[in-house]
Structure formats: C-alpha cells, structure tokens
C-alpha cells in the first residue's frame, strides 16, 4: 500500500472517531392540501461537505435516499424521486433543508439528515417524523388491565405479575409510553416491554399501543404501591400526557397463594400421571415376556394366538 493510501486511510479513521451533532425537529404535522412543508437540519462539523436526506416510510423496512448535497449551494434529487416534488437547499455548509411540495398521506415517514466526508462513513441525526394528516387529531384513551389470577411465574421461573397498559383510539401515532412506581421512573428493560410502534386499525385513522410491566411478587403483595402508566401524545403543538394508576392491595396476596396452589396441583397431577404410565409400561413388558416364554415352552400355542393376545393387551393399555 502506498504512503498516500495509508495517509488517506489514517485521516478517514481519525475523522470517523469524531461524532457529529445534529439538530432536527422530532415531529412535524401538516394537512393534506397544504402547499408545502420544510424540514430543517443543522450539523456541527464543517469538514462534512456531504449532506443527505433519507426517508423511512412506516410501511417499509428500507431507507430511501431522497436528496444529497456535495457542498454549499449544491443540491441533487435522487431518482426515482421527482424534482417537482422535492427541493433541497444548502445555504450554509452546516445547514440544509428539504422541502416537500403538495404533501400527501404517502409522504408520511421519518426523514433522516446525514453528513459525511467524501467516500467516508455517514453520520445520521435522530430524524424528523413527518405526518400528513387526513383526519382530526385525537388523543388516546389509557387503561391498565389487571393480570390473570393464575399467573405466577415468568419463563425463567421468577415469581411475578404482569400489568398491561393499553392506549387506544388516538391519531396520529406520535406516542411514547413510560411507567413509574410510586412516582419513580422504571427504566429496567426486563420489567418493561412496549410495542415497537403503534398499530393502526383498518381505517388507518385510529391507533393502539400496549406496554407490559412485570411486577415482582414482593411489590405485588405489599399494599398501597402505585404503578402508573403515562402515555405522552404529540398533538402537533405540544405533548399531552395521559396516565392511569393501579394500586396494589392485600387481596392480591390471596391471589398469589391460590396461584401457587394451582401450580402445585398441576405438578402433582403430572407426577402421578408419569408414575402410572411407567407402571403400565413395566406391566406390559412383563406380559410380553411371559407370552414369549409361553410360546417357547408350549409349541402347541400358535403364532397367530400370540399376535391376537398382544393386540388385546395393547388396546387394554
């Protein structure tokens, strides 16, 4: 490898170590029929002359390159996207914008800003979620579902109960879900499991999202512990928070006891059934050995009779 190639590789590696900070609005709302919408992006590395705009539609698993710029006042729209639909501007090295003309519902997506040196790794911002509204904004209804009385343990055998928070009938899908225990945030990913994204009903105008909280038994049987589910909903101007609370009581201790007795009964029944099966198998094997011995010592017994007896024994067992 030549000295120049080594130098390029070294400088590329050094620049890749320096992170790039981006500023993008997290959410933007527009309505079908609006003239246009503009998404802005700022980054803080003036060595990154290349800037890009990607989009990630909700119904697609792939990133799509929409537009790019190789420097100040330079812009290009990537095929197959239309130049009449999208306009990229680059008034400064550290700033770019993407304008979408006559936005439609199909333009709803997360739009990512990125930057890089020439032929080097690109850094991405957090993205702007663009929603083109074709219905009225509707905040969610939030409720907590109680766990099953028979629930005792998780897959690893740890005793627990599960609360399920359901947020439904909201539009659009700009929501996040969080849990607290007596006002303290629960950030343990093992305890909290939330849907990756809200799902829409067939009409596409009502969304639903669920989040599950696994509560250890020691918290469940202790009275007056408040478990609160909070849903943060962005209505286009500000975040609206909807929450509901479930309070533990002594009655739950009885449910845990009944649950434990239920599983003990299942375990005992399984042991009895397994023991009976082993005894029947041993008895069947002993009878088969006896019939074989009988055939050997009594030549007057025919093979046909032996087969019939074996079939009868099989049906009996």
Automatic annotation (TrEMBL):
Keyword Signal: yes
InterPro entries: Ig-like_dom (IPR007110), Ig-like_dom_sf (IPR036179), Ig-like_fold (IPR013783), Ig_C1-set (IPR003597), Ig_sub (IPR003599), Ig_V-set (IPR013106), TCR_beta_variable (IPR050413)
Superkingdom classification of source: Eukaryota
UniProt entry tagged with the keyword Signal: yes
Domain Ig-like: 33-131, 140-247
Biological process terms in GO annotation: cell surface receptor signaling pathway; immune system process
Keyword terms, alphabetized: Immunity, Signal
One term under GO cellular component: plasma membrane
The protein, known as: Ig-like domain-containing protein
Taxonomic placement: Eukaryota, Metazoa, Chordata, Craniata, Vertebrata
